[in-house]
Design goal:
The protein contains 20 helices and no strands. The chain is an all-alpha fold. The longest helix has 36 residues.
């Protein structure tokens, strides 16, 4: 009798503490997002101390992004197979250890290896964390609230990276941007066993090794090709070879998945129009936001001559709007549906980006940046929350990790492609303006305005895609 009662008691405990569990899960996701941007401000300091060239410094970012983007699908499937809580905790532990190793780095090779392990660990914890959220909050209304908090915390990570990176590097040195992860990860690891019970294992079936290898290698090749375009160009042999390899590998993956007995990514999941539309939206949101934060940070420091700390502090209104809108999104979803909420959020995001594109080379924060920042924050907050909810809507528990991995993969690949396209367009615009005799500040401003307009185009396309693909549902406004 006692053994029969234990699962019920454990599940009751999980239900009672699920909002605390959500905070712990969101904190881990915050670290994953934060680490993609917090290192940027520290690059000059660590490059000087570790004697790294400018080209090698770019790999401090790439070494994290490549395994993260490449292993997300596999991480999601592993969590479905071996348990979401178990894979989440393994990922958090690996992330903490790799962060400590990165802070202790005495050479470039050591640092790059630690960053790669960070990325691989993030690929385990991120899909498992989102899968746990969707399982903990099965009721559509509670799930909307939970994803509102999740989206706000994760989204703020992007904006907070610049601020925290500047503060920590200036006060404690570059290694502190890595060490800061360790106590937070330790807190999460200590809390999770008390907040979430051990989940049941998936079916004991063999993993799709050929599919895993082909999609991981294909995504890595694609991200590597796109990440290198700014240094070597779009037509360089390196770019063409890697892009061709990516096409072959990803094509092979689709071929293998159609024939696999237990596929890594059952292609039938895309018959769910919410999953398809949500992932396309997150792909385009990733492209818009990566370009936005890159261009905005450089514009503030190189054109407006803000120092790192001031540039970070100017992100606070945007981050504040993100957090504030998270409390409103669930009500909007309940009133008009996820689809319309997402489309409206993307339009607001596009409007803020277009407004920002008119900022001059002598802009002031209050007159030129504050208004667009708040509008962008509102649009981003609504888009992240409703886009994530749409992408996991109607997915079975056995594919929760897969769906969560897809969301993160879409966002990462969209960010890589968007950044490559937008920075190439900006560089071309800057070169043309300089060739016509424009001052450097005016040329840079003109180039960055193209980045903001391009990001706005991504957001508008995302709104059109969502409205076209995801049809209204008479049965539930959540899936509208």
């Amino acid at each position: 009798m006692n053994s029969m009662l234990q699962p019920a008691i454990a599940n009751s405990r999980t239900i009672a503490y699920r909002w605390w569990a959500l905070i712990a899960l969101a904190l881990a996701q915050f670290l994953v997002v934060l680490d993609a941007s917090i290192v940027n401000i520290a690059l000059p300091s660590l490059g000087s101390e570790l004697h790294l060239s400018t080209n090698t410094l770019s790999w401090v970012i790439t070494a994290y992004v490549l395994p993260f983007g490449g292993l997300l699908l596999l991480g999601g499937r592993l969590s479905d197979r071996f348990g979401h809580r178990k894979l989440f905790m393994i990922g958090v532990a690996g992330f903490a250890l790799a962060s400590a190793a990165a802070g202790l780095s005495t050479s470039g090779a050591w640092l790059l290896a630690a960053r790669a392990i960070q990325g691989a660990s993030a690929a385990l914890l991120a899909p498992a964390a989102l899968a746990l959220v969707t399982k903990l909050f099965a009721d559509p209304r509670d799930r909307a609230k939970a994803l509102g908090i999740w989206g706000a915390v994760a989204s703020v990570g992007s904006a907070a990276g610049v601020l925290l990176g500047g503060v920590l590097t200036a006060s404690l040195g570059w290694s502190s941007v890595f060490y800061v992860n360790v106590p937070v990860a330790a807190l999460v690891l200590a809390a999770i066993p008390f907040l979430i019970v051990k989940d049941s294992l998936g079916e004991r079936v063999s993993l799709d090794v050929p599919g895993s290898a082909s999609v991981t290698a294909g995504i890595v090749a694609l991200v590597a090709a796109l990440s290198g375009t700014e240094q070597v160009g779009w037509t360089a042999p390196q770019t063409l070879v890697l892009a061709g390899l990516a096409v072959v590998l990803l094509g092979s993956f689709i071929f293998l998945e159609k024939r696999a007995l237990n596929p890594l990514m059952p292609l039938g999941i895309f018959r769910n129009k919410s999953v398809t539309g949500g992932n396309l939206a997150m792909f385009l949101i990733g492209g818009a936001t990566t370009g936005l934060f890159f261009a905005l940070s450089v514009y503030m420091q190189q054109v407006l001559h803000y120092d790192a700390l001031k540039a970070g502090l100017t992100q606070l209104p945007l981050a504040g709007a993100l957090v504030a809108i998270a409390g409103v999104v669930p009500a909007a979803v309940k009133a008009v549906g996820t689809r319309k909420t997402l489309a409206a959020s993307l339009i607001l995001l596009a409007a803020g980006l277009i407004w920002l594109s008119f900022s001059p080379s002598d802009a002031t924060f209050a007159a030129n940046l504050l208004g667009p920042s708040i509008l962008i924050g509102i649009g981003l907050g609504g888009a992240f929350v409703s886009g994530t909810e749409l992408a996991v809507n109607g997915v079975a528990d056995g594919e929760a990790g897969l769906a969560s991995g897809l969301v993160n993969t879409s966002q990462q690949i969209g960010g890589a492609i968007g950044l490559a396209l937008l920075t190439t367009a900006a560089s071309s615009r800057i070169d043309r303006l300089l060739g016509r005799g424009a001052a450097e500040a005016q040329a840079l401003t003109g180039g960055f305005s193209w980045v903001f307009l391009g990001a706005a185009a991504f957001a508008i396309i995302g709104a059109i895609v969502v409205l076209a693909i995801v049809r209204s549902s008479s049965s539930s406004k959540v899936s509208d």
